[in-house]
Amino acid sequence: MIPTTAVIVAMAFGVAAVTAQSDPIAARQALMKTNGKQAKLGSDMIRGKVPFALDNAKAIFLSFIDAANKMPNLFPENSKTGGDTSAAPEIWANMDDFKARFAKLAADSKAALETVKDRESFTAAYRNVNRTCDGCHEHYRVKKS
Ligand code: HEC
How many whole angstroms from 32 Cα to the centroid of ligand 1? Predict the structure, then answer.
C-alpha cells in the first residue's frame, strides 16, 4: 500500500519534469492532477473511507509542496491559452498574489509535516491547506462547462 503510493507519486513527478520545459501547460496540469489524487486520498482518510496512515498523510503534504515549488515557473507569458488550459487571465495580471498563494501552500504543508500525528491532527491541517487550494481556484481558474 505505502510503497505503491510512493511509486505513483514518483512517476507523476517524473512526467511533470520531462514536460516542464517544452509544455508548461501540460506540466502544470500534471502536477495539479497529482494534487487532486492526493487530495482525494486525504478526504477519504478524513471520512474514514480509507484507514488513516501517517505515511500516506505525509506523502500528501509532500506532493503539495512539490507542486507549490514547481508551479510558479509554469506560467510563462506564452501559456495563457492552448492545451485545454483552465488557467484564468487574471493570473498574469496578479502574478505576485498568485505566487504568494503557492508559497502559502508550501509553508502550510511543511508545517503540517511537523504537526500531523494522527487522524485528528491530519483533519485539521488538511482542511487548512485545502482552503488555499480552493481560494486560488476561485480566483484563478476558469470553470469549464
Ligand atoms: C495559487 C493557485 C493554485 C493553488 C494554491 C492550487 N491550484 Fe489547483 N489549479 C490552479 C490552476 C491555475 C489550475 C489550472 C491549470 C491549467 O489548466 O493550466 C489548477 C488546476 C487544478 C486541477 C485540475 C487539473 C487538470 O487539468 O485536470 C486540480 C485537480 C487541482 N488544481 C487541484 C488542486 C489541489 C488539490 C490544490 C491544493 C493542494 C491546488 N490545486 C492548489 C491553481 C492553483
Answer: 5
Q: What angle do CA 97, 100, 101 make, to 5 degrees?
A: 90
Query: What is the signed CA dihedral for 39, 71, 102, 3, rounded to 10 degrees?
Result: 40
Nearest atom (ligand 1) to Cα of 79:
18
The torsion region of residue 83 among left (phi > 0), alpha (psi -120 to 50) and beta comes to left
pTM: 0.88
pLDDT digits (tens, 9 = 90+) for 69-90: 999 999 999 999 999 999 999 9
Domain that holds residue 41: 2-72+85-140
Domain count, the chain: 1
